[in-house]
Amino acid sequence: xxxxxIDSYIDEFRIYLHQLDEKEQADxxxxxxxxxxxxxxxxxxxxxxxxxxxKHLARKVLADYSIKMSEENYQNIxxxxxxxxxxxxxxxxxxxxxxxxxxxxxxxxxxAIVLIxxxxxxxxxxxxxxxxxxxxxxxxxxxxxxxIFIGLSVIFQSFWTTIFxxxxxxxxxxxxxxxxxxxxxxxxxxxxxxxxxxxxxGKKLLYGRKTPMKGDKTNA
Length: 220
Fold this sequence. Notes:
It comes from Companilactobacillus farciminis. It is built from 7 helices and no strands. By secondary structure, it is mostly helical.
């Protein structure tokens, strides 16, 4: 039986699900349509009281979808053939969707108010440390190359002075090239920790509230 309140809610809900493919959209919409019918949510007020606004519900659904994709390491996208940069971009998007889902819940807004500044501070510190490291590396590379040129410039005057400066220059460059991959790996590790944290936070948010989620065991 048709219900204008349900149809109106679903129509608006569908608009915010454009990031999902057609099949996933259809599955999600069918799930919530059946849920509203089974729960006898016959008015807009009852639907919103149970599920939140269409926009808020869509944020939670998209966050849930993004978390699952992240946990599967995006293996279902192009048969898992995606670049590291694309994977990182999708994980950043997942973090953003989880934050939006947090903001969709009045209870979770207080968590977000505390959490978001901490996360921004953390990212700010990482960016600052990366920029500082790049600056120091650039300066040391210039210094190392300069030391080599100084050493070569006096090769006919003092062989041992040349050996000393060239050795210092090569040592500096060697340390730089040794540290760069270590720092890159450390940054990637920090980012992976943040991703795992937001996956955990998102699941606590999505499955710890009364809003039913597609795939939730309690609503299967």
